[in-house]
Every structure is written in structure tokens, then in C-alpha cells.
Amino acid sequence: MTSTSEKRRKVLKAGAALTGAAALGFPAIVRAQSDAIKIGHLTPLTGFLGALGQYAQKGIQIALEEINAAGGVMGRRIQLLSEDSVNPATAATKAQRMLDQDGVAVLMGEINSASAKTIMQVAARNKRLFMQIGARSDVLRGADCNRYTFHVDIPVTVMVNAAGIALARDGLIKGKRIYCLTSDYLFGHDLSKAAKAFIAANGGTIVGDELTATDATDFSPFLLKIRQAKPDLVATNLGGNQVTNFVKQYSEFGLPFPVAGFNLNTADAWAAGEGNLGGVWPTVWHHELDTPGSKAFVAKFRKIHGQPPENHAWIEYVSLRIMAQAMNETKSTDTEKLIAYFEKEPQFDLLKARKGYFRSWDHQMMQEAYPFSVKPKGQAKDKWDFLKFGSAVPAADQPLEILAPTKAQSACKM
Amino acid sequence: MQLFFLLEQVVNGLVLGGYYLLIALGLSLIFSVGGVVNLAHGAFYAIGAYISLEIANRLGFGAAVALSPVAVGVLGILFERFILRRFYTADPILSLLVTFGLALVAEQAIRMIWGAAPLPASMPQALKGSVILGDFLFSRYRLLLLAVVAVVLAGIWLLLNKTAFGRVVRAGIQRPDMVAALGIRLQPYMTSVVVLGVGMAALAGALFAPIAIVHPAMGAEIITVAFVVVVIGGLGSFWGVVLAALLVGVVRGVTIHFAPAAGEASMYILMFLVLLFRPRGLLGERIEKFE
Asked: What is the pTM (predicted TM-score) of this model?
């Protein structure tokens, strides 16, 4: 009997160790050569943004393999320590630990605006570079901006302007009655503010403006209110998977008013199911973008994962490439040198028609965005194919900065 | 006109309440008979939704709704036989811990099998759209859902009140020792109750998959609502749970009518008020073994 109970104890111990490790999240690669350049990477892998974070990890991993296969940076391999950021408090703790104990040169990552904010504070306190890849709240590059953080994804204002221009062109804003539905948290409020400014500036009237808690999964009471208001357009400022729930139920009730929204990630659109999504939305990138760079990346991703990449996979892929390019050209991993380099506004290949650059005074990547509508039923080639691209905004002959907040509008002071 | 809009919210709330009922009734039954608060109940709801997607892709929507609860019911047998059974007479904190742990394991297992990304689920085209009944707008699909709930509810009520099986279960709720003294083993009855309970949760998952997003954390989202409904309705009371589920749906609709941002908070405020003035719940019965 002793031996069985010992065995059992061992199994239990191993189980406990496993669970503990799973809870803490092992770094993707534990130890490589000591001369490798270490980069700390944090992104949500659980919670309501976890699905997007998994795409993020897959994207950055492809860039990592490419860069190391091509000889690394300055002849040294890049070693990526990638972990679940969990929540804003844990994100900050892990960022600090990566800097102190793991000796990472720079920090990258995030999708959650609140976690991005706490990592930005860690970066500023330690005077170390943080490339904030996927969080979109305006405040991060506005009032909360700091000189150690660079933002790759488009901010909320750009998303609103990208979809808004297409809506205005289709005659859905000027003189129209618009009903707004907003997720009740930082990101939703940010979206709502930008959307209202755009609608007011373009001659629309807001006839309904409702907040919905982020844990709401049933929208039927709101659908009844929308029906009563009889708007010309329903404009959604919803975050995360709320968009999916809303469009599914809107389609279920079959209301006749056109729907649009100022935030939609490809993964949320995929989850909506065929025939449920309609309207006009903005996106920062999509796997059907017709450029050689994007096509090559999509083909590679498809080969490895058997499906096209989501926009978070793309943005992580280009971000690590930008970081590698910066380190190669400055021949350094030093934060001050990298900041000086980025602030000279060098151009980076984003796999889009036009190259992008970090604007020197708010460290925001200036790049093309795209409004899109949804392919009519029956025209989609496969379950990943739903989107009908609008032309890129800003137009080819306009400066990239026209969609972003101007220096006068921005609260960023570095 | 304003009154009409309000009434429309009340009616819509009743429909939503029917869906809450499907999950809460199982939770309440398992608690009444076994004395265990099954925090893994939401996991069965989620697994029910995922299995229904797998079946729907192969055999169609109708088969998915019919077979998913059966498949989850089989899981329920294993769950009762190998886990839950050990905790009926143990310290309640242990059963809370074990079912909570199981919920976490189930969520992670879903993530490993089906991925973290939410999955698409659609209803048959014929069920989409709305119908107007007496000036009220209804989603056609939800009317069907309500009909299914009504049938299930009637079935459970008949089973509990008009059959020999139901008599033993009801006696077991009040005096398990007396049932044992009469020479009746309660264990098979308990297994059946758990199968019924988790089967109903799976049915709710399968029916709600085309309406709301199917993702690994969906079980964690629903368990709170189910728990609130059971507490408001009162433990051990069949009609208490029915009343509470409908009430939670209506209160939510009416709250959203007047103060949309407070919509999700409304059920907690309701629970608070009920606990303040009627700690036993609306129709809660006195159960000797819990006194």
C-alpha cells in the first residue's frame, strides 16, 4: 500500500506543478544562447481578448523565425519571451519582472487598452522602450502618452474616420437620424466620443445614445428600443465579442435599418456566422489585401496554421520586423538610440500599398486604413471570406496624417 | 405609446426569462436533491453549445438541439458517478471547490479542443426574422425557444409530481434518511436528476448558440445568472425558480427601457432586495436537512 500511496503522491505533485506552471504561463522559449537579444512580449491569452492574443502570438512567432533564419539582428539571435498579460495589474508586474530578472532589452505587445496603459507606466519608470502593438484607445496616445512608448495599431479616431468617410459617401450621415450603442468601458467611451464628433461635423443627428454593460450577451431590449426609434442608421461602438453578439441578434430580429460600426476585428466577424454580418466597418488590415507583401505573409500563415491570419497576427508580424530593422540600423538595443531613430520618422514596410512611419510628437504609426462592407450571401469563397474592401483611406494623393487627431486636438505632451 | 413600449419590454423579458429558466432549474434541482451547488453547471451549458455546433455541421440544426443534451447527459452520468457522489454529505466548501475547479478544467479543455477563438453558429434561415403578435415584435426563433422551454418545463413538472420517480426524488429532498429506511437507494435517482439538470443546461447552450457568441468562457458567464435566479426563487421550489427566471428577464428589460447602462446590474439589485426582505427566496421551502 505504501508504494501506491507514494506513487499517488508523486502524481499529485506532478499535477500540481503542471497546474501551477499553466497558471503562471511558461515563457514561450525558456533559455537560449546568452548572447541572444531578449524581447519581452505580453498579450492577453485568456479573457475576452484571449482569442485575439492567440493570433498575435502566432503572427509574431512567424516574424521571429524569419528574422532568426536570416541571421538575426547584428548577428545575434532574437529570443522572444512571450506571456499571457492576464489583466492590467499582472501585465505591469510581468513587464517589470521581464526587465529586472529576464534582462529583456525592450517590451512589445498588448491588445487590451487598460493593460497597455499599465505597461506604458512601467516602461516610463524604467526608461525602457515599449512598442504598444494592438491597443486602440485614443487616450494612450493622447493624454497618457509618454516618450518610451510607440503605438502601431490605428487609434480609435482613425477607425471612426475610416468607416465614417465611407458612410458619409453612401449618404448615411448627412441629414440622417443615427442611433448609437456603446460598450460601457474605456474603449467604448473613446469610440463613442470620436463617433459623435464625426457625426456632428458631418451633419447627422443622434436620436439614441445607449450604454450597454460589457457582460451583456442579450441585446433584445436594445433591439426593441431601436425599432421604436426608427433611425436611418444604427452605429455601434462595441468592444470585443459584443459586436458579434449584437450583429447575430440584429440579424435574428431582422430589423430593416442599416447597421454600421466603428470597431470590428476579423475574428469577431468570422464568429458572426454566414449571413449575419452587414453594414460598413473599418479595419487596419485584412488577409485579402492585394499587395505582394501581404500575399506572401498570408500564404506562409495559411501553410502553418491552415487558415488565414487575423489582423492581430499581421500587426505583430510587422511590429517585430520593424523592431529588428530599427536595431539593425541603429546597431543597438539601447532605448535612447531607438527612440531617436524612430523619431526621425523612417518609413517601414507594413505590407500595404503605402509605407508607414511613427509620427515624432505622439509616437503613433501613420498608416492606411480601410472601410469595408460585407459580401452578399453566396459570394463568399470560404468561411474566412466575407469582406468587400473599400479603397484605402487616406487616398493615395493625401497625406497619411489626415485621419489622425491633429496636434491641436491631441492632449499628448511628452 | 410609452406604455406600449414598456409592455413590449415586459413581454420580451418573459421570453428571455424562459431561457434563464432552462439553466437555473437544473442547478436548483441538483442543489435540492444533492445539497451541492454545482459551479460546473455553466461548463455543461458551454459543452452543450460546442457539441451542438459539431452536430449541426454534420446532421443539421434539429439534430443538434436533440442530440447535444443526450451527449452531455452521458457526461453527466460520469460526473455524478465519479465526482459529485463523493460530496453529498461532505463539507459544502469541498463540493464548491471541486465543481469550481472542474469548471476551470472544462473551460481550458474547450480552449484546447476547439480553440480560443469564438466559433460561428447560425440558425436555419427559415427561423430568422420577426413576427408581430398583437402589435408586439417577437423574434421568430425566440418564440420557438419559448415553446421548447414550456414543453421541457411541463415534462419536468409531470415527472416530479405525477410519477413514482418524482415521489422518491421529492421525498429524498426532504428526508433522505427516511427514504433510505424504506429500503430505497437514492443514488440512481440522484444520477437521473444530475443527467436531467446538465441535459437542460446543454439544451440551453444548443438553443442559444445561434443567438449569442460561442466561446470558451460562455459557461462562466451564465453560471452567475443561473445562481442569482435560484437564490431569488428560493431553494427547492420548482415554481420559485420559474417565477424568478421570468422576473429577472422582465426586470432587466424594464431597466434597459429606463436606464440602459444599469441593465446587467438589475438582477443583482433584485437579488439584494429579495434577500433583504425574504431571505428564503420568493417561494423558498423549508428543507430540513439544510436547517
From this structure: 0.84
